[in-house]
Amino acid sequence: xxxxxMDDFERDLRAAMQRxxxxxxxxxxxxxxxxxxxxxxxxxxxxxxxxxxASIVLVSVISGALAWHNMEERRKGEEAKQQVFTAxxxxxxxxxxxxxxxxxxxxxxE
Amino acid sequence: xxxxxxxxxxQLVDEHQSMVYSLALRMTADRGLAEEIxxxxxxxxxxxxxxxxxxxxxxxxxxxxxxxxxADALRRRKxxxxxxxxxxxxxHGAQTELRPSPLGTxxxxxxxxxxxxxxxxxxxxxxxxxxxxxxxTTLSAPLATVKSQLQRGLKLLxxxxxxxxxxxxxxx
Lengths: 110, 172
What we know:
- The complex is a heterodimer of chains A (110) and B (172).
- In chain A, 85% of the residues lie in helices and 0% in strands.
- Chain A contains two helices and no strands.
- Chain A is rod-shaped, with a radius of gyration of 46 Å.
- The N and C termini of chain A lie far apart (136 Å).
- Chain B starts with 8 loop residues before the first helix and ends in an 8-residue tail after the last helix.
- Residues 83-98 of chain B have low confidence and may be disordered.
């Protein structure tokens, strides 16, 4: 159809289909709604950053607490290990003394 | 953003408000709805402003989104079961618009009775002066479909005009 010359009806159709002027106030309404949307978007962005910051703080606190708890557990374990070694050393020394006394006692008996 | 063109939103609204409003008005035949669609289209443009590469791209984008939003609005209205067509020359907002000639008004009214796809093709062809290829791109439809919609739409409009517009159109 684009190759055929336009007839009267098509010319009338084209004339009838001229663009209509936009209603008065359309631009103002668009600009007002846009400003409102920008405010909402800015607010949403602030809320998003606040949430992100709160999440980072929360994760840091939890990680810190877990790390502290692990260190504390390790320290307690180390302390318990040292106490066991001390007890073993004392026991070993007592056994050694007892062994020496027994040996001495045997020599005296002979 | 591609290219050096910096889109100025207010200027784009100024330049294209008539086009966007007219497309929505001819697709929906409802001034209030057309104004609402036009506002939504420009707000969507604002959200996509960073992706607009040139004045021509802006115009094509606005055409495509205006047609698509109008089709959505028509679908919603069908779902709600409202009457599809409102008289084009109803008084709402009429004081602010240039009234077309009586023949133009009648043709416009007849256009509003065509099936949506045919009406879309005819509006883009005769209001926007687009080629069938450009219409196909705008509507994301195959070229053959667009050509057929244009032919069938024009034929139907002619036959309706021959019945209803005898006092204005002769020899159709």
